[in-house]
Write a structure and sequence with these properties.
Length: 401
């Protein structure tokens, strides 16, 4: 059976430029033997550690994650056929369920290893002479860092400012923009935008301390978060938001500006300018309008309440809701799939969709009237109260003036 699976793998892989090296072939055979042992033992556990080890070797050798996971799919197909001819009824259903659990556990272990290795240290795109922030514990990432890595043809950008809950100010925004630029020159074909492992806030949104204290548009064209959102929307390859944890304010605009969003059950999404007395900008509202029905937009903006993952999937703010232990592997697989498609076609379709959804004809007079209304709000005492209340960690008292 192992020979049949190896032959199927070779047959299905004729597009490979060079044959599988001997070392990889041995690993594939070892994997196949382990899957069979797991099936006999009725447990997925024995597959996990060897899958991690194989993934670690493959990562170091620069092999694509999808390629490393491929043998599981092939072996599952071969085994399915064998099981279907040998068993029937409930027995067959149970055996197939076990097989799916085993191959799923192996693939997940590999994806987790890839992501852990890709984000294991803080070298990323840090300039060599950048000093670590004071107070960073050994093994922790310094404040404000954005980590960048490439797995196969997928770039991974990790927001890792734990202390500030990934609030996005000028430094964070410019680092993500620089990471996008660097990944563009490395010709990645998809990007995953994520928070560092273990964070339960994906991003706390705009750095409120960097919002102007009145008498100036808080979300003007040159605002760093606005620049970051534009960089994501105009990036010439798919950007996938991978969301574990809570998303606040402008970070939701960022998530919606990504081409797709995948989240796990810990995710929630809140748009909170009404907590600050902040008049959201027209471009930002268009981003919401491009993705959500108007009644949903209104409920989210008017209540500022977090929308939990299940509801978010239903509305649908996100494309996929997956269990937390499958989030990384699912998102990477999705990104890797897009990375195999025509980059030129994807880039132009993305740009067409952006142009079609971002632009609304609006008369100059109407635009100026709306901007005047916005000015009244950001020149108001309520906006200052919102900023002050956040800084003082208390509830704001809005007077409508
Ligand atoms: N801006 C600046 N600093 C922030 C922000 C932020 N958005 N969020 C958190 N921080 C800072 C806090 O002030 C703390 O600083 C530290 O991060 C940890 O936060 O006191 P310090 O240590 O100096 P905290 O609150 O102690 O952490 P948790 O208890 O884990 O709570 C995490 C939360 C994300 C729930 C909480 O920090 C929070 O509610 N943050 C504000 C979330 C929010 O409303 N963001 C929307 C910002 N507005 C917008 O983006 C826009 C564009 N808008 O239109 O509204």
């Amino acid at each position: 059976m192992i020979d049949e699976a190896v032959a199927a793998l070779m047959h299905g892989d004729q597009t490979r430029q060079s044959p599988l090296p001997d070392g990889r072939r041995r690993e594939v055979r070892q994997l196949f033997r382990l899957v069979l042992r797991c099936v006999r033992a009725g447990s997925a556990k024995p597959i996990i550690r060897p899958s991690e080890q194989i993934a670690a070797h493959s990562f170091a050798a620069g092999i694509d994650l999808a390629e490393v996971q491929g043998p599981f799919t092939v072996l599952a197909e071969v085994l399915w056929r064998q099981l279907a001819s040998a068993l029937a009824g409930e027995q067959l259903v149970q055996a197939l369920g076990l097989l799916t659990a085993i191959t799923g556990a192996g693939k997940d272990a590999m994806a987790r290893t890839y992501v852990a290795l890709a984000t294991r240290d803080c070298e990323g795109e840090q300039p060599a002479d950048e000093p670590e922030a004071a107070g960073a514990e050994s093994g922790d990432c310094p404040q404000g860092v954005v980590l960048t890595d490439v797995v196969g043809q997928v770039g991974i950008i990790t927001l890792a400012d734990r202390d500030k809950r990934n609030a996005i100010g000028a430094e964070m925004a410019s680092r993500v923009i620089a990471a996008l630029e660097s990944l563009r020159t490395r010709q990645v074909r998809a990007i995953v935008l994520r928070a560092a492992p273990g964070m339960d806030v994906w991003s706390a949104g705009h750095d409120i301390g960097e919002l102007p204290p009145g008498k100036r548009d808080p979300l003007g064209y040159d605002d760093p978060l606005e620049e970051l959102i534009r960089a994501v929307r105009t990036f010439p390859a798919p950007v996938v938001a991978m969301v574990h944890g809570t998303v606040w304010g402008g970070a939701l605009d960022l998530v919606l500006s990504c081409d797709l969003a995948v989240a796990d059950e810990t995710a929630s999404f809140a748009i909170t300018p009404a907590n600050l007395g902040l008049p959201y900008n027209i471009t930002g509202l268009l981003h919401f309008q491009g993705r959500l029905p108007i009644n949903v937009i209104k409920e989210m903006f008017f209540t500022a309440a977090p929308i939990h993952a299940r509801k978010a999937r239903e509305w649908p703010l996100i494309n996929h809701l997956v269990p937390w232990d499958r989030l990384e592997s699912f998102t990477l697989e999705l990104a890797a799939t897009m990375a195999t498609k025509s980059p030129l076609a994807i880039a132009v379709i993305k740009e067409q969709l952006r142009v079609l959804s971002d632009y609304q004809p609006i008369a100059a007079e109407v635009y100026e009237r709306v901007q005047g209304l916005r000015r009244q709000a950001y020149d108001s005492g309520d906006y200052l109260e919102g900023l002050e209340a956040f800084a003082q960690k208390r509830q704001p008292i809005f007077r409508g003036t």
